[in-house]
Amino acid sequence: MNDELSRPDPDALLLTQQDGHRGKLKIYFGACAGVGKTFAMLQEAQRLRAQGLDVLAGIVETHNRAETAALLDGLTLLPRRAAGRSHHTEFDLDAALARHPAVILMDELAHTNVQGARHPKRWQDIDELLDAGIDVITTVNVQHLESLNDVVAGITGIQVRETVPDPFFDSADEVVLVDLPPDDLRQRLKEGKVYIGDRAERAIENFFRKGNLFALRELALRRTADRVDDQMRAWRDQQGRDRVWHTRDAILLCIGDDTGSEKLVRTAARLAARLGSVWHAIYVETPRLHRLPETQRRAILRTLQLAQELGAETATLADPDEVRAVLRYAREHNLGKIVAGRQPHRRFRRDSFAQRLGELGPDLDLLVVALDEPLRPALHAASSKPASSDKWRLRLRGCVMALLLCLAVTFIGRGLLAEFDSANAVMIYLLSVVLVALRYGRWPSVFATVINVLAFDLMFVAPTGTVAVSDLQYLVTFGVMLAVGVIVGNLTAGVRYQARVARYREQRARYLYEMAKSLGSALTPQDIAATAQRVIEVTLQARSQLLLPDEQGELQATGPDLRGTPPDAGIAKWSYSKGQPAGAGTDTLPAVPYQIVPLKSGQQCRGLLVVEPENLRQLMIPEQQRLVETFTVLIANALERMALTQSEAASRLAAEREQLRNALLSALSHDLRTPLTVLFGQAEMLMLDLAHAQSPFVAQAGQIREQTLSTIRLVSNMLDMARIQSGGLQLREEWVALDEVIDGALRSMGPMLKGHAFELALPSELVLIKGDSAMLERVFSNLVENSLKYAGNTAQHGIRAWRDGTRLEIGVWDSGPGIAGDSLTQIFDKFARGDKESAVPGVGLGLAISKTITEAHRGRIWAENRASGGAEFRLSLPLPAPPEISEAALK
Questions:
Q1: Burial class (CB in 10 A: 0-12, 13-18, 19+), 302
Q2: For 683-711, what is the mean pLDDT?
Q3: Cβ–Cβ < 8 Å for 609, 595
Q4: DSSP string covering 107-151, please?
Q5: Residue 475, CA atoms < 13 Å, CB-side half-sphere
Q6: CB 277 within 8 A of CB 249
Q7: How far apart are the first and last CA of the chain?
Q8: How far apart are CA 44 and CA 26, in angstroms?
Q9: pLDDT > 90: what percent of the chain?
Q10: The model's pTM
Q11: Cis preceding-peptide flag for 444 (omega within 30 of 0)
């Protein structure tokens, strides 16, 4: 067995040398609430306490379950502390660190801490405890894993807000699955052991439906199985991968150069689908690959592409021994079943391959599939005719050179080396065989060996001039000379061929390095196009051109034009939209003299690479096609890097512009507010004095007062936005009546409401909301002011409100012209206005402030156009249960 297979992974060994002072994390993992995670955690705590360990109960949620609460006996409970403005009790992280127990219990890993705590999430508290060297035992449900959040939401219809990052979950030292069949769990719910009263009935009807429980249980089991599989792989990496562990079905498909491999791929795909397993498809690139005809090599490439389309992970391995390469790959990826093909007329070679697999890999299952598709010799011969003719011309030149060298050696041996022993002539003849093998290959070297033996017999062995031999020992000399010549010639030809293959690979690696280095310093699309053109021209003897989308999404040529026909716009648009190659060497329009390859980075297509070779055969070779694919990946990554750099620069510029604008607005607002306040007071007194004197200029004074008040409101908006940007928005939450908030907002808008029809449709009963009354009045005054500004003088206005379950829905509407469809979401951005060229005063901050205040109250705000005409701004606020008022307070 190859020693390399049992060598541990160096990276895995380095991981074992990491700092061991960090605490250990143990997670009790379940499909949903009620399966017994907290109960199991407390049982483990009691077991550890019995062993003499210091166990501290940091956070344990018993949910009033008697049997769970009983397990707290004897455990030290950590007192909670008040945190945040709400003074809600929360986990005391500093006290736990000061106490520094050996083990601490932290229930509900995904819990969100109250605002004001040191960390926003409980898992971050646990991470700090682990860094302090404290072992932590915690619990979590499958729906709280970040990667499965959307899957669970699609199954249950409920979006879980509290999540845990998967890397933190995967970093746990131990995960214990706590499982319970759905029927048993639903019975526990009915018995009140999970939730109490009506809450249990609602849970059974909604989240705890039997189908949901089946799906969640499967997710939890699969997630745990994946973790165990990762642990098994890590163990194998540390201990050495000398054997395959058949822990689950996994298939490795060996693709050969036989016709009919497509049937083999489909057979492996059906087998993998039937077993529900992953599968890989590989091709071992031996030196014999480069001697195959182009048609056969393209068939191998198409077979690998078919396997990839059917869900396989594909790879091409370079190794002179395909059996050992297959075994090494199978052990590295823990693939226990190997599928190989067998042609009836090539049975001996395939049986030899299978036999070697069985001898060198006795721990693997081998499945040999008969490939009954016939070969197509006509197509094979037609496609390989040019290569065969070139090969025969090279062999013919080699035979001529072998004959000339034989004559030269014979002349030198007879004329110049007559005094030397005949053995020296034998060595010179062997040297000529080596020279022919180095330059012309195997068959000319065999021809050189034969004619050299004949020449030696005719010229150096008595009787000379005939092929007769008087001394029988020369027969041994002839045989050894012939055998040594053939062996040396074959070995030399093989080394020469492998050297040529290595040289080609080194050239490809050098070209890739040069392109990657040049693209790393490219700053513009023109630089990228120039680099691609230079490298592709040297590598593939082809011209290239980049087609990149402009701001409107239209493809524009970048770089020099092609020599021949420019790329068709329709073909380019199809390739760009579909993300698939087209042109020569592909299945889409292969008759055109160029190839179009999409530049894909992730799921996004960054553009197209058009390659026009001088000889189309350059694009038909599988190695060249893989090289083109690698070039496209490098170019796509360079384009993505350039786009990210431009986006970062634009974001940084926007942030600096925003910061400068906020600073300027804040300074202007502070400088303007004092004189505006004085101006408003003077206008108020002037209007009162003129009214007392019954002056005809009262109306003008009133206009001055109203405009001053409007300017003060505008300056207040700018100050509020500056305060919000600096994080200074603080809510003073209290219970307020909805009608009082709206009435206060309308009173502040009294002068502007004169002459406008306004309608109120509020609930008849008292509606209490919890929030900052001043901030909420600001929201309604901004919305009403916006409606009055843009709806027109003849429009009607109104506010309507209604209950919708646990939320309060409010609409501020008008009968004006409405809002343009593309502005419905943009109008809530800072400094955004419905009509940028409008003469309506304002800077576009009112709606942005309203949105910020609404979201601070855990609500939503959006705009929509009414079906009957006009616009409506909708608010949705939470409607918690109001506090109970005692009879004594009422009295």
A1: middle
A2: 80
A3: no
A4: --TTPBPPTTSSSSBHHHHHHHHHHTT-EEEEEEEGGGBGGGHHH
A5: 5
A6: yes
A7: 93
A8: 10
A9: 10
A10: 0.46
A11: no
Helix, strand, or coil (residue 874):
strand
As a whole number of angstroms, the distance between CA 379 and CA 866 comes to 69
- Across the range 519-536, mean pLDDT stands at 86
Closest CA to 130 of 13, 17, 14, 20: 20
User: Which residues neighbour 379 within 8 Å (Cβ) at sequence distance 6 or greater?
Assistant: 295
The structure tokens listed for 318 are: 């370079």
Q: Which amino acid is at 539?
A: T
Q: How far apart are CA 803 and CA 800, in angstroms?
A: 11
Structure token digits, residue 152: 């669970």
What is the phi-psi region of residue 245: left when phi exceeds 0, alpha when psi lies from -120 to 50, beta otherwise? beta
CA angle 466, 468, 469 (to 5 degrees): 125
d(CA 680, CA 669): 15
Q: Which amino acid is at 800?
A: R
Q: Quick check: helix, strand or coil at residue 577?
A: helix
Listed in sequence order, the residues at least 6 apart from 287 whose beta carbon sits closer than 8 Å to its beta carbon are 320, 494, 497, 498, 501
Q: Per DSSP, which regions of 159-234 are E strands?
A: 174-178
Handedness of CA 731, 737, 742, 746 (dihedral sign): negative
Query: What is the DSSP code string of 253-295?
Result: EE--SSTTHHHHHHHHHHHHHHHT-EEEEEEEE-GGGGGS-HH
Dihedral angle over CA of 287, 289, 294, 300, nearest 10: -160
Provide the 10 A C-beta neighbour count for residue 410: 20
User: Closest Cα to residue 523, out of 387, 683, 638, 647?
Assistant: 638
Q: Which amino acid is at 101?
A: P
DSSP-derived secondary structure letter, 820: -
> Dihedral sign, CA of 813, 817, 822, 827?
negative
Cβ proximity of 103 and 112 under 8 Å:
no
Which residue type, as a one-letter code, is found at position 348?
F
- What tens digit of pLDDT does each residue of 610-645 get? 888 887 776 766 667 778 888 888 998 888 888 888
CA separation for the pair 485, 115 (Å, rounded): 86
Q: Are 148 and 37 in contact (CB under 8 A)?
A: no
What residue has token string 């502390």? 81
Residue type, 848: A
Residue count of the chain: 891
Torsion of CA 233, 235, 238, 241, to 10 degrees: -60
Rounded to whole angstroms, how far apart are CA atoms 531 and 447? Answer: 48
Do strands 55-59 and 757-761 pair parallel, antiparallel, or not at all (unpaired)? unpaired
Q: Give the angle 219-225-226 at the CA atoms, nearest 5°.
A: 90
Contact 109, 123 (CB under 8 A): yes
Coil vs helix vs strand at 813: strand
CA-CA distance, 447 to 433, in Å (whole number)? 9
CA distance 557 to 179: 60
What is the C-alpha to C-alpha distance for residues 750 and 710, in angstroms, rounded to an integer?
12
Which residue is associated with the tokens 């166990």? Answer: 55
Q: Which residues contact 267 (CB under 8 A, 6 or more apart)?
A: 339, 369
Query: CA-CA distances (angstroms) from residue 312 to 200, 201, 256, 342, 630?
Result: 46, 46, 16, 21, 20
CB atoms within 10 A of CB 581: 22
Q: With beta carbons less than 8 A apart as the criterion, state whether 437 and 492 touch.
A: yes
Residue with tokens 């307070």, as numbered in its chain: 889
Q: Which amino acid is at 135?
A: D
The residue with tokens 């202007």 is 668
Does residue 467 surpass a pLDDT of 50?
Answer: yes
Radius of gyration of the chain from its Cα atoms, rounded to whole angstroms: 41
Write the pLDDT tens digit of every residue in 407-449. Answer: 887 777 776 655 666 666 777 777 777 777 777 777 787 788 7
Beta strands 135-141; 542-549: pairing state? unpaired
The β-bridge relationship of strands 871-878 and 860-865 is antiparallel
